[in-house]
Every structure is written in C-alpha cells, then in structure tokens.
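Support request from a user on the community tier.

User writes: "When I paste my structure tokens into the form, the page sometimes reloads and wipes my input. The last time it worked, I copied everything first. Here is what I submitted, just in case something in the input itself triggers the reload:"
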C-alpha cells in the first residue's frame, strides 16, 4: 500500500491496518461515541477540539513509529500533511455520518416534566433549528397534578410517570425542576432511566451564570465554581487581536467586491453608497454603524407609517418584504453583503467580529437590569442571535442570549459562531 503525503509516496506496512481499530478505540476513550445519547442538539463543531486531539495523537504516533507503520520514517512535511489530512478527514467523516443519521433516524419523542412556560420554550427550541430532530409528545405539569411536596414522588406517582413514558413510547424526558428535594429528583431520574428513557434537566442556575462553570468535588459534594463575568486582560487582548487580523484580512480579500457593490448602489438611484445608523456600543457609548445602503434615501421617514406591518417581536422592527428596499438592496440583504462595511467598524475598534447585537437607541432603552451587562463586550457583526434569526427572537430573549455569550466567552466560542454563521448566510436566512 502506498499513500502520497507530499512529493514522495510512503509505503504503509500491514501493521498500519491495526491503526484503524486503535483509532476507533481512542475515539471511544475520549467520549466521542457517548455524547450523542445525552444530547438533544448534536453538532460535530463542538467536538472539533477532541477530534483535533485525536488527529494529533495519531499523527504523532505514526511519526514516532515510522519504521513500524511505514517502510521509512516520515519527515516533518509528511507528518504535518498527515495531521492536516486526519483533522479534515475526521471532521468531514463525522459530519457526514451525523447528517446521515439525523436524516434516517426517527424523531426523538420527548416527555416534558415542568411548568407551562418552560414547556413552550422547549417546544420552540426543538423546532426550526439545525442539528435537532425531536418533538414534545406530552407535557406533565406536576404543579397541577400534585404539589412538589414530600409525597409528590411516591412509588404510585413514579409508577404513573413510568407507565406514561412506556405507553407513549418516550425516548427522552426533559425535566424542569423548580424547588424539589434532591433525593426525590434522583428517584424520578432513576425511574425513567430504568425503562430506557434518556433524561435531560434544565438547570435554572445556568440561565443566569451560563454553562462555563467548573465542577469542584468536595469529597462527595459537588460545587460549581462560576467564572468571573468580565474578560481578563489577556482574553480581551486575544479577542482584539483576532478581530483586527480577521477584519483586516477580510477587507483586503473583499476589496474588489466592495468596489463593485458601491458602484451598483450608486447607480440604483444616485443616493449615498453607505447607510450610517447610530447604535449603542460597548459600555453604552454610541457609534455610527456602517452598511451598504439597501433602502431608498428617505426610508427612515417612512418607518412610522409601516409599523403596523412589523413582523419582529418586542421592540424590534423587521418586515420581510419591506417596500423601502431597493432592487440592489434586496440582493445585498439576501446575501448579507450589505454588512461588509462593518469590517471597518471593527478595525476602528467600535465593533467585533462576534459579539452582542448592536441595538439602536430606542431598542437599547428597553434593556434593563442585569441584561445590560451585555454591553461589557463590543457589539459584533455576528453573534448567537444571528444564528437563531433575529426576526424570530424577541428582544427579551435576545439580550439574555447576549448576556450568556458574554458570561461564557472564549476564543473557540467566537470561531464556532463564525463557522455557524456561514451556512446561515448561505441558506439565505437573512441577518
């Protein structure tokens, strides 16, 4: 067997065939085959760090055992090529396999145990989002059936829940506890697990502190250590360097595209090329956000007359077929190219590649309390709100999402959001 790693081909020995099951075993040991059972939203991107570690380990072992797995040792270039090939191959293969499994597997049937508000939230999150194939087939509100008292989870009550799960062929139970004894909740989880039902729990505390917590075992007692909210100096510096490099390279790469778009916008009606709008930035400071103009010059004056056609929720303004949008503007919005001038806002230090959504003044005035901590970071060209689709997310939920993004920031989070924005834009879902 021969494999071309660079300008020379390298012959593999038959011992290299044993590397395939070893690769599978290593993937199992790193937990890559156990995550999907516990998750509702399955995404390969979240597993990328583990896949990179696995590729690194395999490439390093192959390099060190060159005389065993290949007829001659790999040089540095061949080892680097092998590592890159493994990284790309593992990501591509796992993405393809997961996509196929998502299409072929039946929809996951879920029993929701909790209050009505939480049930509606979960229903909305399970529908219309990628990587999820699940539905709530039944809702059990224990506040209405029985109080969360000492006998709430008696053997009779647990038996009724178990029978309901079996009768409805439930695959997963989603539990939203309010205030309940830990022992009773453990009995509920054990009862569901005993009949093969997967269990997910909505932790109320994480709605406030986010998911980036460190679990500390105090000799049998689990304590969650909450990270500091603001970025450290090194993190802020890393984020700024990432923004400047990304925006600068982006401006150089799309400079010809910017020139063509500018000419098209000008030829449309002779109006200005750019649209400048006052937005609220970091620490509440205002700045002029740049976009290519997609509307007629007097669009703002017509806004009040169109408020009855507003399709957004809770303070946001968005119309799917806005009559103020020009022909060129319609194309720019569908392709998200109207957002490209914001790269200059990033270079100037007014925006970030990824961050909280920059709100206009009247929208920002509706944000109160701890949600205003979202302004600790610079607003972004994209963010978690864009992946969800801002026209479908009410303002209250959007600022909560922004707050959790700030509370859980990492450079890898920014990279994941940027990568997830690409298919969102290519799918013409709008900004």
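"...and here is what came back when it finally went through:"
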């Amino acid at each position: 067997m021969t494999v071309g790693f660079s300008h020379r081909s390298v012959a593999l020995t038959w011992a290299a065939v044993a590397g395939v099951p070893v690769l599978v075993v290593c993937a199992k040991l790193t937990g890559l085959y156990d995550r999907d059972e516990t998750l509702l939203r399955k995404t390969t991107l979240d597993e990328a760090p583990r896949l990179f570690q696995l590729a690194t380990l395999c490439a390093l072992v192959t390099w060190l055992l060159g005389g065993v797995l290949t007829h001659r040792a790999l040089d540095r270039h061949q080892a680097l090529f092998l590592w890159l090939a493994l990284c790309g191959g593992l990501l591509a293969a796992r993405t393809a396999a997961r996509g196929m499994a998502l299409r072929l597997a039946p929809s996951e049937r879920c029993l929701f145990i909790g209050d009505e508000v939480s049930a509606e939230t979960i229903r909305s999150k399970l529908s219309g989002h990628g990587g999820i194939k699940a539905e709530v087939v039944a809702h059990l509100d224990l506040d209405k059936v029985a109080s969360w008292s000492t006998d709430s989870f008696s053997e009779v009550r647990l038996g009724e829940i178990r029978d309901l799960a079996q009768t409805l062929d439930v695959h997963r139970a989603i539990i939203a506890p309010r205030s309940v004894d830990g022992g009773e909740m453990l009995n509920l989880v054990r009862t569901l697990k005993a009949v093969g039902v997967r269990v997910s729990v909505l932790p109320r505390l994480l709605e406030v502190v986010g998911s980036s917590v460190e679990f500390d075992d105090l000799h049998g007692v689990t304590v969650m250590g909450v990270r500091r909210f603001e970025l450290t100096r090194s993190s802020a510096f890393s984020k700024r360097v990432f923004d400047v490099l990304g925006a600068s390279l982006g401006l150089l790469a799309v400079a010809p595209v910017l020139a063509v778009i500018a000419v098209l916008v000008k030829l449309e009606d002779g109006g200005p090329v750019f649209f400048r709008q006052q937005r609220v930035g970091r620490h509440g400071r205002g700045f002029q956000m740049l976009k290519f103009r997609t509307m007629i010059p007097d669009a703002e004056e017509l806004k009040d007359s169109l408020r009855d056609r507003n399709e957004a929720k809770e303070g946001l303004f968005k119309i799917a077929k806005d009559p103020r949008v020009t022909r060129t503007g319609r194309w720019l919005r569908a392709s998200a190219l109207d957002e490209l001038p914001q790269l200059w806002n990033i270079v100037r230090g007014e925006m970030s590649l990824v961050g909280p959504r920059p709100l206009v003044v009247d929208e920002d005035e509706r944000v109160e309390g701890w949600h205003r901590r979202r302004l600790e970071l610079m607003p972004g060209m994209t963010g978690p709100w864009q992946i969800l689709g801002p026209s479908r997310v009410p303002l209250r939920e959007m600022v909560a999402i922004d707050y959790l993004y700030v509370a859980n920031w990492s450079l890898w989070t920014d990279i994941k959001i940027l990568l997830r924005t690409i298919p969102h834009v290519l799918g013409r879902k709008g900004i």
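Agent notes: The reload is a front-end session timeout and is unrelated to the input. The longest strand covers residues 134-140. Confidence is low (pLDDT under 50) at residues 1-7. Escalated to web team.
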